[in-house]
Structures are given as structure tokens and as C-alpha cells.
Amino acid sequence: MERIHLKDKYFVPYIPYEKLEKAIDDVADRINRDFKDFDGIPIVLCVLNGSILFTGELMKRLNFTCEFSSVRLSSYEGTLSTGVTRKVLGLTSSIKGRTIIVVEDIVDTGKTITDLYALLLDAGAADVKICTMLLKPEVYNKDLKLDYVAMEIDNRFIVGFGLDYDQLGRNYKDIYILDSKTEDKKPMKHFLLFGPPGAGKGTQAALMVDKFGLRHVSTGDLLRREIAAGTPLGLQAKSLIDKGELVPDEVVEGMIASELQSHPDVKGFIFDGFPRTTAQAEHLDAILAARGEKIDTVISLAIPDDTVYERIRHRAEVENRVDDTKPEIIRNRIDNYHAKTEPVISWYRKKGCYREIDGLGTIDEVFRKICDLM
Ligand code: AMP
After folding, report:
1. pLDDT at residue 308, as a whole number
2. Binning pLDDT at 50, 70 and 90, where does residue 82 land?
3. Residue 75 has what pLDDT?
4. Considering the chain, what is the average pLDDT of its residues?
5. Residue 199: which of 29, 15, 67, 366 has the closest Cα?
6. Which atom of ligand 1 is nearest to the CA of 272?
7. For residue 346, pLDDT beyond 70
8. Is 165 within 8 Å of 159 (Cβ atoms)?
9. What is the pTM of this model?
10. Is 276 considered catalytic here?
11. Would you call 333 a catalytic residue per the annotation?
């Protein structure tokens, strides 16, 4: 396998075709076993364009009768408050009452596959199984069960075997990664997503990760992970979060320092939900300065308190967060935002990197404004 050149970048071999074949053999065996006695004809649904080669390889190995169809997903539309996101395009078969095996090339944050799963069930599918060739467990942040995963990989940018760099490279049968030797090591560029709870920071951060390849770090998510794991830190944090209070600065500062340390190869970070106090902002700037880095832009999503309140109420139905359910807790979080977090704005205004945008548009409209800023 040789180094390949796509536009302005060089890529080197990462996963040889033989290893992919073996992983596809294994995943096909598992599907064959599960569908051996299946009563009916499932639809194998190829998610274009990336999974075209994988679907072909997988279909050859399936030894039960199945139908084939393919789809694309539209880009994001609708607003956060209505929860409308995307449409399924190009579906050729009727899926009412059918069992679907969705075939994806890669699942990273899990946004696309979760949207597709919900849309297929909405369109009347009886059952939806997910099969993906690759999974990046490090960045997957959804609860959706992935039924069949052929291979897990690190969070690297890859091309080949259906995956592209700017639409190129899909035809190569091996998988490649960026050649670090020819990549100029650029200094990291960090962004801070700022705004009240429910401003859409998490949603926009996931889109920024997909488009710009930055690493998303949300202190809220890190704390919820500690809580789920039942660690002492998690227990301490839970009692505060459940009341709508902030956790102590030192706790979140420690988490951020360890995130920065454990990811030396990323292009930069998107900080979400951090800093939430001026002390945290001072701390962040100091640890970045020690690395010769700084916050490039603070992107602030401005929305009025009434909308904050409504969005959090809506999110409570979707995400089952205790801190999202009770009116007095929501009010406390909003109060804490005004009292402790808003002063962070003047900290970054003084540094000249604070930019505010209207957070009330559709997901796509807000994202376009963010892209313009970046
Ligand atoms: P979030 O998901 O960002 O809304 O965070 C959920 C909760 O975690 C917050 O209401 C706080 O209790 C806690 N939390 C998250 N980030 C921080 C932070 N930077 N400082 C203090 N508490 C935080």
C-alpha cells in the first residue's frame, strides 16, 4: 500500500483491506445468525455515499433473502424547540411494517444515525437494526444501541473504502489516515461556545466537530459520565446538579486540564459549558497560555430567558435530565447563569475575542453564523 495524495493532503495506510474483509465476515456471520429464522424479508438500507463499498461487501455475505434500498439524509432544518431536524431522501421502498438493516460506513458522535433511526420508525418501520463498518467509541455520545459494529477505531480522520476527503478517495480499498509527517503541525485553535442552558451549545458543537474536526469538551457531559459511573466525584456533583447549582471550580478545572493533556494531536477544542465563572475563565486562559495557546473566539448564543425556560422543558422530555424537569431548578440554573456565568462575558470582551450571535434561528441558520465567525 502506497501513500496517496488527495487535493492538498497526503494519506498513509491505516487499515488494510484484508483486515476489513475479516471484520465484515464476522459481522455478516452475526447478522446471518440473527436472521436465520426471520419470518419476512428485511430491507438492507445503504446510507449514501459513504457506505456504498461496505454495503456491497456485506450484501455478498448475507445468506438470507433481503431487499436493497438506499437513502441520504437532508441537512439540518427546523428549530431546536420543535425538535425537527432532518428528512430521509431517496427512499425507494415502502418501509411500513418492515424490518430495516441500516448500513452505515462510520458512526462518530452518533447524530446522523440517531436521526435516521427515529425518522425510519416515524415512517412506519416495524424494527430498525443498525450495522456500521466503523465506530469511534471515543466520540460516540448517544444511547442508541448499535446492533452490529464491524470494527472500532480511534478518533482519526480517515479516507478510503467509501470514505472521502472532499468527495475524493472513496474508491481506495484500504483505509488511510492523514500523513502526520507531511502535515504541518499547526498550533491548536480553541473555541468557546457560550450561552445559557438550552441555548443549543451541544447541538452546534456536534456540527462544529463534524465540519472542523475539533474536539468537543462539555463539562456537563463529563460530570454526567462521572455520575453514571457512580464515582465519589459523580456523587458529589449529582447533589449540586440536581439542585441547579454549579459544581466547585476546582472539580471542573481538573477535568478540563486532563482533557487537554490527553488529546495532544487534535486541531483544537470547543469548550462547551466551561468556563461558567470568571475564576474558571482565568484558570482556562492560564493553562492555555502555559501551552502557548489561547481562546481564538468566544461564540455566544444569545437567547431570551423565556426561550431558555421553554427549551429546557422540552429537553426534559427528550433527555430525561433531573435538572431539566422541575421549574424551581430550571429557574435556579437561569439565576446562576446571570449571577455567576454572565460576568465571563466581560472577561472575554476585554480580551477582544467575544462575539455574540442570535441563537433563535433554525439549527442551520445558527450554524451558518458560527461558520462565518470561524
Ligand atoms: P450542562 O450540561 O452544561 O448544562 O451542565 C449541567 C450541570 O453540570 C450544570 O447545571 C452544573 O451544575 C454542572 N456544570 C457543568 N459545567 C460546569 C462548570 N463549568 N462549572 C460548574 N458547574 C458545571
Report:
1. 85
2. very low
3. 66
4. 89
5. 366
6. 3
7. yes
8. yes
9. 0.57
10. yes
11. yes
Cβ proximity of 366 and 204 under 8 Å: yes
Per CATH, domain 4-178 is 1.10.510.10: no
Q: What is the mean pLDDT of residues 164-176?
A: 94
One-letter amino acid of 310: E
Find out whether the beta carbon of 196 lies less than 6 Å from any atom of ligand 1.
Answer: no
Q: Please tell me if the CB atom of residue 223 comes closer than 6 angstroms to any atom of ligand 1.
A: yes
Q: Which atom of ligand 1 lies nearest, measured to the CA of 219?
A: 16
Residue corresponding to grid cell 473555541:
191
**Least confident window among 182-186, 216-220, 306-310:** 182-186
Amino acid code (one letter) for 100: I
Torsion angle of the four alpha carbons 206, 212, 214, 216, in this order, in degrees rounded to the nearest 10:
-10
301: left (phi over 0), alpha (psi -120 to 50) or beta: beta
| Secondary structure of residue 356 in the 3-state scheme | strand
Q: Is 315 a catalytic site residue?
A: yes
**Any ligand 1 atom below 6 A from CB of 217:** no
How high is the pLDDT of residue 78?
43
| Domain boundary assignment for the chain | 4-178, 189-373
The class level of CATH for 189-373 reads alpha beta
Active site residue 291: no
Q: Name the more confident of 184 and 192.
A: 192
Residue 273 has pLDDT above 80, yes or no: yes
Q: Where are the beta strands (DSSP E) in the chain?
A: 4-6, 9-15, 43-47, 67-73, 88-89, 99-107, 127-135, 148-152, 158-159, 175-178, 190-194, 215-218, 269-272, 295-302, 354-358
- What is the strand order of the sheet 99-107 is part of? 88-89, 67-73, 43-47, 99-107, 127-135, 148-152
Same fold, 4-178 and 189-373: yes
Q: How far apart are CA 124 and CA 72, in angstroms?
A: 18
- Beta-strand ranges (E) seen in 62-189 are 67-73, 88-89, 99-107, 127-135, 148-152, 158-159, 175-178
